[in-house]
Amino acid sequence: xxxxxxxxxxxxxxxxxxxxxxxxxxxxxxxxxxxxxxxxxxxxxxxxxxxxxxxxxxxxxxxxxxxxxxxxxxxxxxxxxxxxxxxxxxxxxxxxxxxxxxxxxxxxxxxxxxxxxxxxxxxxxxxxxxxxxxxxxxxxxxxxxxxxxxxxxxxxxxxxxxxxxxxxxxxxxxxxxxxxxxxxxxxxxxxxxxxxxxxxxxxxxxxxxxxxxxxxxxxxxxxxxxxxx
Amino acid sequence: xxxxxxxxxxxxxxxxxxxxxxxxxxxxxxxxxxxxxxxxxxxxxxxxxxxxxxxxxxxxxxxxxxxxxxxxxxxxxxxxxxxxxxxxxxxxxxxxxxxxxxxxxxxxxxxxxxxxxxxxxxxxxxxxxxxxxxxxxxxxxxxxxxxxxxxxxxxxxxxxxxxxxxxxxxxxxxxxxxxxxxxxxxxxxxxxxxxxxxxxxxxxxxxxxxxxxxxxxxxxxxxxxxxxxxxxxxxxxxxxxxxxxxxxxxxxxxxxxxxxxxxxxxxxxxxxxxxxxxxxxxxxxxxxxxxxxxxxxxxxxxxxxxxxxxxxxxxxxxxxxxxxxxxxxxxxxxxxxxxxxxxxxxxxxxxxxxxxxxxxxxxxxxxxxxxxxxxxxxxxxxxxxxxxxxxxxxxxxxxxx
Lengths: 229, 401
What we know:
The complex is a heterodimer of chains A (229) and B (401).
Chain A: E1 2-13, E2 16-28, E3 33-37, H1 44-51, E4 59-64, E5 67-68, H2 74-84, E6 85-88, H3 100-111, H4 115-128, H5 144-156, E7 162-166, H6 174-189, E8 193-197, H7 201-204, E9 209-214, E10 217-223
Parallel strand pairs in A: 3-8, 3-9, 6-7, 7-8
Antiparallel strand pairs in A: 1-2, 1-4, 4-5, 9-10
Chain B: H1 3-15, H2 18-54, E1 60-65, H3 86-95, E2 99-114, E3 117-126, H4 129-133, E4 138-141, E5 155-158, H5 160-167, E6 176-179, E7 182-190, E8 195-196, E9 199-200, E10 204-208, H6 209-215, E11 223-228, H7 234-248, E12 255-259, H8 260-303, H9 305-313, H10 318-354, H11 364-391, H12 394-399
Parallel strand pairs in B: 3-10, 5-7
Antiparallel strand pairs in B: 1-11, 1-12, 2-3, 2-6, 2-11, 4-7, 5-10, 6-7, 8-9
């Protein structure tokens, strides 16, 4: 359960204050499928970073599952990101020297998961995104769509409750993009809360919960059955 | 996260950049190898000098005419108003009770000839006592007559090299050689000895000391080697010896007395300075190697900005990120250190092969210090890049393409 109330985020850019978010109120229930749309500079990415605990509000309250995130220190935020949140990025952010399996394994290494269990979860994760045959290929040997599928497997391997995707199809052709959307929505149907930031209205309208930001404020919020699901 | 996984991850990152990893390994290896090799040279010089003087025996006083400013290795003469004479030597032998034996030495150079063969040799005038005092071994025949008896005989003992050059394989005993214009009969041959106290002992001809003084028209001797009964009596014997000399030299004890201890001590000081200078040079190269590691790690941090951002998004803590980069630096520096040690030992072995008389041996403390220093160089110079990595803002790090 995500509860934002009165969230502001101000930056100083070249001495000038920039108000990326101006008092945002938003509730995203567990298992929700939420899309965040809006023009460039409307605060979409800032909102996603705050939701992902990579950034903190300048003012206001962000409660994740009832816990006030603003009160957590750096180590506690790392802990939250490690166990509760999975990220999918526009540019995949795979570690190029590692294989597909190595990339999926990465979060478990730092979380101290045992070697044998890591191997099991890697093979299950890669199977879930249909890449078992590509397990030993390095990132450079994979297509864009395959890379994003590895990234999704990595994002969910620690069993998070919240999956944040920042323009997940922004760098893919429509066929590969559709495959990624299908995978993400499958994760959502499995119970994961899914938040997608996108420029693409065709993707945005698929969500049950659609919000639109303009100049750091909520311009519209719609709930209801998503398009062509 | 356990250490094995950490080392695996960091090692993987290093393997991903072979050239960069190799170059910084090389830097550390050169630094460590130079530390170990240079200290080996310093230590070798010390062992060499110690070995040279150890052959003197600890109970030896070397008396030189003239007083020096300081007890040094090459005495700086302030003027010798009185020669050190054979009569002085006799007086010392008679009146200093602690003397076990005593060998005067005179020195001159002359051409040695036998038939057509000729070479310039050092003619050392001495007595039978020299054999015991300087531990000279004979290959054939006998040595010079003892002090007093037969001091004027025209007999000589050849060094090993002189013998082989003048006589080849022929037996020299009883044969005649000319030294300068005078004929000498060969009564003995010294066993090969090599260099000792800066003199080639094999390139010498020994003759009775009085004969040598007459031949070179000298009145004073060059050295007086005095063997004392025991090490404990060394300083009292030196004082007694100086009193005898002062009595005979108008109240001035105008001689320099060297002992093995004093020579080794002054050499030790010089060698300490030499070793310190070598260590200093080597330390500079290790520092340069450390800067190399730091540079590599800084490049790695900026090149892997996205990876660091990703790790943060995955919930990796700052401490873990610091560990990743410190472990990388530690792997670099310790592998470099190991390679450097291998190079140093190979180099020392090579030098020993080339110069067998010069004992180049890496001292154990230098090996330990090199390993310790290279590891700490890695950690010290890796710390700043690691902290920089840990402090990266994940949002900015991730926004890079």
